[in-house]
Each structure stands twice: as C-alpha cells, then as structure tokens.
Amino acid sequence: MLQSTARTASKLVQPVAGVLAVRSKHTLPDLPFDYADLEPVISHEIMQLHHQKHHATYVNNLNQIEEKLHEAVSKGNLKEAIALQPALKFNGGGHINHSIFWTNLAKDGGEPSKELMDTIKRDFGSLDNLQKRLSDITIAVQGSGWGWLGYCKKDKILKIATCANQDPLEGMVPLFGIDVWEHAYYLQYKNVRPDYVHAIWKIANWKNISERFANARQ
Q1: Which domains does the chain possess?
Q2: pTM to 2 decimals?
Q3: Does the record carry Transmembrane as a key word?
Q4: Residues marked as binding?
C-alpha cells in the first residue's frame, strides 16, 4: 500500500520537476523611473524601500521556495511539495503583482487610449466613475491587499476586483493595480489610506494600461 502511494505521488510530481529543472532564477526588475520621479504622490524613500526591500524579499523568497519545491518533487515528497504551496503563492504573487505595479505608474502617464476610454465609458459610464468605484473597493480592503482593474476575456468587459494579501488576480487579465499594503504608503500618508488611493490616479500610467488592454483583447 505504501509503495503504491509513493509511486502515485512520484507520477504526480514528475511533470512539475521537469518544469522546475529548466526554470531560471527570478530577478528584481529595474524600475522604469527613478525613485524620486513620482514625488510628491509617492516619496523617494517609500519607492526605494518598496522596491529594494519588499519586492526584493518576495523575489529572494520565491527563488528559495522553488529550490525547496524542486528538491521535494525530485524526491517524490508530495507532502512537502503541497506544504510549500502557500508560501509559493504568497511570494510568487508578490513578485507578479509588483512587477505589474511598477509599470502601471509614471510621472506623466497621459490619458487612456480611445479604445480603452470607449470601453470604460461602456462598462462604467465614465472615467470618473471607474476611478471612484475602484478607489472605494480598494480603500475598503481589510488588512493588506490590492485593488485591480482587469479585463475579462470570457465576457469581453472591464471589471474591478480586490485581492487579499499578495494573491494574484484570477479570472481576468490585470490592467491596473493599487497596492494597499501599508509599506506602500504609510511613511507618507500614515493611516489615511484614502488620501493615498485617491492620489495614485495622478501617476497612473495610462499608456501602459492601454497597452495591457490592447494585448488582453487579442
């Protein structure tokens, strides 16, 4: 019975081992701007700490977890592989979310493309209404998490959603994310999360958001 279970576990994890064996290390992406470029909305100090400390920690932890997962999989240790999943989701999600977040911001992000603006008006009535609705649900996130504007390929519409902790957005293509972990704003905005959320629209990189929207529709 034990031998049969071990053989089954080995079969389950073997395909994963092949994937992990060829996967390269994750690296901290460079920012598309200098740390001070988003002032006064986000301070140099916050941006540097957020990028060099917090995002870097997610990347380092993710690489370590994948090494442990590779070892567990190679040994057919299904129990250990399963036990690593929460940490993989947390740190992997942190890396995914922040990699999107940095590109979503710019000192002069312009305006939504015509195609995106037309879709915003269709699905939300106006850009102001989209901003209000996404801001409201993001401010209301309990504890730490993210607010997202996403594109649902199935329904072919824009939707808004929130995700707890570092959970990545599911069921939609992420277009624009607002990080409401306290490390993203507390040094500057203290406990007044609404001020931070409302201010971040001033540095929304609509060029990047529009490009993500165009790619999502393909």
Answers
A1: 44-104 (1.10.287.990), 114-216 (3.55.40.20)
A2: 0.88
A3: no
A4: 50, 98, 179, 183
